[in-house]
Design goal:
The protein is α+β, with helices and mostly antiparallel strands. It has 3 domains: 24-60 and 169-335 and 378-486, Up-down Bundle (Outer membrane efflux proteins (OEP)); 61-76 and 153-166 and 337-374, Outer membrane efflux proteins (OEP) (Single Sheet), CATH 2.20.200; 82-148, no CATH class. Helices cover 65% and strands 13% of the residues. The protein is built from 11 helices and 9 strands. The protein has helices at residues 2-17, 24-34, 37-57, 107-114, 119-146, 170-237, 242-277, 305-309, 312-333, 379-446, 452-486, and strands spanning 21-22, 62-71, 82-84, 88-92, 98-102, 153-166, 286-287, 338-349, 365-373. Strands 2-6-8-9 form a 4-stranded antiparallel β-sheet, with no helix packed on it. Helix 6 (170-237) packs antiparallel against helix 11 (452-486) and helix 9 (312-333) runs antiparallel to helix 10 (379-446).
Length: 491
């Protein structure tokens, strides 16, 4: 068991020391997953889809339920508490009791005056007047109470249905805008995805560039160390001077500094790539640089309208132009008749079925109708319509200008690819020449026909040619990626 435990630990240790190797495609995929671009794209598309459905649903009937409750400190009185007529005045007191007073010109007052000399008749007239006045007072009291509804607690309920019939094309324009917004969300998501790929490629080839320069710095340093050892032996034998040895040591010191700079640069460039692809900053990995020198050369380029129209910038401006035209239709709808149909069921308490009864026995009522609004003098809507037309024209002009700029951009990207390819070919020729010069300088130095300075000069030229070749190949790779980005051929 102890032996098995030791074997398992050794296997785990070996697995822990394995450094993964990533290709360019793997880094691109990791960056897409790390940037949450797919989740953001899904959320954006889902929001745009729901907005489109909402714009479509606005064309259909809307059903709503409303309810209200109101408490009033006083209830309204339809009749006043005092009614004056030509024959008398009826009153309702604060305590709710009624009274009636005959006027001086009334029939009963005249009869009462005329029968003063007849006590029996006078008494009968006064009694009859009091009886009739009491009847009038009671009648007015009942009428006052009947027309004094109890509105202390008022409850209103309403169920309504509204259907737009014609609103000047506003709803159709809003639906078109929501559809265009959905297209814009897709275009922006794809554009962000391609931008992530470009940033990954730049960081990826930067790491490859620094890695190659690190190897080159190590090789150059090893050459100078070997040269320093050889010159030291020559100094001992009297075939070289101490000055030659100091020159070699100084050069070797410079190479050591460049070697350290290359190592630090590699660490930083790897950290930048880790940040993009979503790995911990200090993750150890190796990049596959097999395709560094494999670059597709573009001899000719035909910039067509289809190529420019496929650019996301033009597609976004096309969408903006559609939105501007829809906005013109919306502004125009404000100057056209609007027709709406509506139906309602309303219930109130106190109800209106039988006066203002407060017994919750009402059945409510239905109402239906058509509302037509015809604008006649709306100066603000006219001005908004004119402004919307100018904004639509502005978007069209921006689109034409953008097509010219994008044509220039694609042409420049193609030229940069061609220039990078030429640099690669030139630096490869420089490497061959530098290697040949270095070989002759090494042979001459070994034969004692060249000084250490001559050999160091040849080594420096070789190192510079190799560094230029690495820069040229990386520049060509990045230029190719950007060219594909600008021509919508980036996978």
């Amino acid at each position: 068991m102890l032996l098995l435990l030791l074997v398992a630990c050794s296997v785990r240790a070996e697995e822990a020391t394995i450094v993964p190797t990533y290709t360019l495609q793997q880094c691109r995929q990791m960056a897409q997953n790390a940037s949450h671009n797919s989740e953001m794209r899904q959320e954006s598309l889902e929001a745009a889809r729901l907005h489109q459905q909402a714009a479509l649903a606005a064309m259909f009937p809307k059903l709503s339920v409303n309810a209200a409750y109101m408490w009033n400190s006083k209830s309204p009185a339809i009749l006043s508490n005092e009614l004056q007529t030509s024959f008398g005045t009826a009153r309702v007191g604060a305590d709710g009791t009624g009274s009636f007073e005959w006027s001086e010109n009334s029939l009963f007052n005249q009869l009462s005056q005329d029968t003063r000399t007849l006590p029996e008749a006078h008494a009968r007239v006064n009694a009859l007047g009091a009886e009739v006045g009491g009847m009038i007072a009671n009648a007015y009291q009942e009428l006052y109470r009947a027309l004094h509804p109890d509105l202390t607690h008022v409850v209103v309920g309403q169920v309504g249905l509204m259907q737009p019939i014609y609103v000047g094309g506003r709803l159709k324009a809003l639906y078109d805008i929501a559809t265009t917004a959905k297209d814009v969300a897709e275009i922006e998501a794809d554009s962000k995805k391609q931008d992530v790929i470009v940033s990954v490629d730049e960081a990826y080839w930067r790491v490859v560039n620094v890695e190659h320069k690190k190897r080159l710095a190590n090789q150059y340093y090893d050459l100078l160390v070997t040269l320093e050892n050889n010159v030291t032996e020559l100094v001992k034998e009297g075939l070289a001077t101490q000055s030659d040895l100091l020159k070699v040591k100084a050069k070797r010191g410079d190479a050591e500094v460049k070697k350290m700079q290359a190592e630090n640069g590699l660490v930083l460039s790897k950290m930048a790539l880790c940040q993009i692809i979503g790995l911990p900053l200090h993750t150890e990995f190796v990049l596959d640089d097999q395709g560094l020198g494999d670059i597709q050369l573009h001899d000719t380029l035909n910039v067509t309208d289809d190529l420019i129209n496929s650019r996301s910038e033009i597609q976004l401006l096309d969408a903006a132009e559609k939105v501007a035209k829809s906005n013109v239709r919306i502004m125009s709808a404000g100057l056209q008749p609007n027709i709406m149909a509506q139906a309602n069921y309303i219930y109130t308490n106190p109800n209106l079925d039988n006066g203002f009864s407060n017994d919750w026995k009402g059945t409510g009522f239905f109402s239906a109708g058509v509302v037509v609004n015809i604008p006649i003098a709306h100066a603000d809507d006219i001005l908004r319509l004119k402004a919307a037309k100018h904004e639509a024209n502005l978007v069209a002009l921006k689109r034409d200008e953008a097509k010219e700029l994008l044509t220039l951009q694609v042409t420049q990207a193609n030229q940069k690819v061609l220039e990078a390819q030429q640099k690669v070919a030139m630096t490869e020729m420089q490497i061959k020449n530098a290697e040949e010069v270095l070989r002759f300088a090494q042979e001459a130095f070994d034969a004692g026909m060249a000084t250490a300075s001559d050999l160091m000069q040849a080594q420096t030229a070789w190192q510079a040619a190799c560094a230029d070749n690495i820069d040229a190949m990386v520049e060509a790779q990045v230029a190719e990626t950007k060219f594909k980005r600008f021509t919508n051929t980036l996978e």
